[in-house]
Amino acid sequence: MADPFGFMKYPRKDNPYRDVAERITDWHELQVPLSAEERQKQAARCMNCGIPFCHAGTFYGEQRAASGCPNDNLIPEWNDLLYQGLEQAAFERLARTNPLPEMTGRVCPAPCEKGCTESLNGDGVTIHDNERYIIDTAFEKGWVKASGEPVERTGFKVAIVGSGPAGLSAAWRLNQLGHLVTVYERSDRFGGLLMYGIPNMKLDKDILQRRIDLMVELGITFVADTEVGVDVTVKELSETFDRIILCTGAGVPRDLAVTGRHLQGIQFAVDYLTEATKDVLKHGKDATSKKLAGKHVVVIGGGDTGNDCVGAAIRQGASSVKQLEITPALPEDRPTTNPWPEYPFVAKLGYGQEEAAFVTGEAVSRYSTSTTGFIGAERGQVIAVETVSVGTDFQPITGTEQVLKADLVLLAMGFTGAEQALFDRFEIKEIYDDYTTNNERVLVAGDAKRGPSLVIWGIREGRKAAEKVDASLRALIYQ
Questions:
Q1: 367 CB contacts (<8 Å, ≥6 apart)?
Q2: With contact defined as beta carbons under 8 Å apart, do 167 and 462 qualify?
Q3: CA contacts within 13 A on the Cβ side of 25
Q4: What are the pLDDT digits (tens) for 236-245?
């Protein structure tokens, strides 16, 4: 490394968040990027550790979680290049493994930083923000297009069903490798959860559209409002394309089967966030509709999606927001059973929770709380949520029942998996570890294959599936 003592010279400095009072009045991005000079100093903190845990995903917790980058990004290398001021070289190294760093540089929870050797006794390197700076600089200076141009065209055609992180990643890589790619999306806009599952203040849709526009310019075809198996048949796709990759995500939301679930005003989180984003796309980032003015909102689910719902509801003028989580509050400090380099399961305050506390003057989160039912008015509109506290065994504690006012209830309890109808249409019975299936011309990647996961996993799987397709198609040339 150019400065092996940088981590001793410079304290960690993250991209600061805009002031709460300012940011809740609009849908612009939350963070303010640091200057190039400050970014170089942060890159200098990447130490010559010898064993960079950051860029190799290490599994733990019965293989359910990872520390380090699941995509094997070459983090120490592009950090060093950034420190030296070699920004284009840093971008080229970053783009070797990550086709969509502007997405992960904004929404990834950065398990790489938690696995960073410097975080053993320090705060870790700002890998997430460095990545964002590199790719935003690359777009500003016009370097990105050249990284996606194919050397030659093979003539093979590949269809990708779904335009989320896995689908976009697969499309970018296949086009790089010279294949003709068509992406089918049943929604009206492309990006999957990047478009409609993550609110604008966390991932500006102009950033997403910038990438899609470039992909179109590079020769990738996008087809919206088209559901495979309905608007275009499986037979048509199979006859037109040499390979098909299903990247439809794990979009089946977890439901809550309790009394009153049928009432109006109870929505899945992803449907609410979709509506919120469509409002922003229609009216602009400076406007907040205040459609929830005077309303009481209850969010069920304590994860990132729930936090996004809280932030969106505050911008829409909600007078109160409560977030319910059935699990206990996490500890303030890392327990001995959760050592480095594992991802630290400790308490943190989400941006939405901070905003709700600022507006309402009270904490938004209620832990160890189970929802037991919903109460409705005569016309079938939800007006309240029935709850009870639970113990560590998740069993109700007698005498802790409460009723919370609610005009809108958002179910943010995660997803159960992929929709099976499309798999059935392609007669897919088995999905193998290498993304292939029992249908030799159809592959599956991303959340559709592995279940609900991080954006970076989708990017990795899309890239790997694309390379698997490329190998199988090129093998046909030499038969």
A1: 302, 325, 327, 328, 329
A2: yes
A3: 5
A4: 999 999 999 9
Q: Is 0.90 surpassed by the pTM of this model?
A: yes
Say how far apart CA 27 and CA 287 lie, in whole Å.
7
H/E stretch holding 365 reads strand 365-366
- For residue 62, pLDDT beyond 70: no
Tokens found for residue 190 = 């492309």
Contact 445, 462 (CB under 8 A): yes
Listed in sequence order, the DSSP H helices in 124-204 are 127-140, 144-148, 165-176, 193-196
Strand order in the sheet with 369-376: 369-376, 382-389, 402-405
What was the pLDDT predicted at 2? 67
DSSP annotation of 343: P
pLDDT band at 456 (very low <50, low <70, confident <90, very high): very high
Structure tokens at 279: 């409002």
CB atoms within 10 A of CB 60: 14
- Taking the alpha carbons at both ends of the chain, their separation in whole angstroms is 47
d(CA 271, CA 267): 7
> Tokens 């320090």, residue?
122
pLDDT over 90 (residue 416): yes
d(CA 167, CA 436): 15
Alpha helices in 316-380 (DSSP H): 351-360
Q: Are 141 and 88 in contact (CB under 8 A)?
A: yes
For residues 220-244, average pLDDT: 97
299-343 confidence digits (pLDDT tens) = 999 999 999 999 999 999 999 999 999 999 999 999 998 888 888
> What is the overall mean pLDDT for the chain?
95
CB 122 within 8 A of CB 13: no
- The confidence band for 418, taking pLDDT boundaries of 50, 70 and 90, is very high
Strands laid side by side in the 408-411 sheet: 266-268, 408-411, 296-300, 320-324, 365-366
Question: Max Cα separation, the chain?
Answer: 73
Tokens 């010559």 correspond to what residue?
48
Phi/psi at 87 (5° precision)? -65, -40
Q: How far apart are CA 270 and CA 258, in angstroms?
A: 20
Q: How far is CA 432 from CA 238, 428, 437, in A?
A: 20, 11, 6
Residue 353, CB-side half-sphere exposure with 13 Å CA sphere: 18
Q: Is the pLDDT of residue 63 over 60?
A: no
Query: Structure tokens of 172?
Result: 């970018």
